[in-house]
Design brief:
By secondary structure, this protein is an alpha+beta fold. Helices cover about 30% and strands about 30% of the residues. Strands 3-2-1-4-5 form a 5-stranded antiparallel β-sheet.
Length: about 140
């Protein structure tokens, strides 16, 4: 090979390696919505299951409490991007639910994502009016 060709090839390789290093090192500009979607996806794939109690549903926020290793956490999840996965009557969500959380950061948790749903819909009032329904108290 000619020395000029070798130098040009090495220079092109160096430029490609520098571009790759910059692409890896520099943070990508993510919108808050995309960052939240990635957080939910990562929690779905890597998170542990736990149990929570939904205390309030207000607007597009679901408020819940849960306990991990004796520590009580109070959290809320914005579900504005997930309304297609929710029932029309939000009040039916109040009660027990499943969550996913990170073992190394239990405060980081979700109730619902695009790929997973820990919500348990509470039966309607017509079922509770039946004296033979489970959990019925006169």
């Amino acid at each position: 090979m000619a020395p000029g060709f070798q130098i040009a090839l090495l220079a092109a390789l160096a430029v490609a390696l520098i571009a790759l290093a910059l692409w890896i090192i520099l943070p990508r500009k993510l919108t808050p919505e995309k960052r939240e979607r990635e957080r939910r996806s990562h929690l779905h794939k890597q998170g542990r299951l736990g149990e929570a109690f939904i205390t309030e549903v207000s607007g597009e926020m679901i408020h819940y409490v849960y306990s991990i290793h004796g520590v009580r956490y109070t959290a809320a999840q914005d579900v504005s991007a997930l309304t297609e996965y929710l029932p029309s009557d939000y009040e039916r969500l109040i009660g027990v639910a499943s969550i996913k959380y990170f073992a190394n950061n239990p405060a980081n948790s979700i109730l619902i994502s695009e790929d997973w749903n820990g919500l348990r819909e509470v039966p309607g009032r017509q079922m509770l009016a039946d004296s033979k329904a489970v959990g019925y108290q006169a």
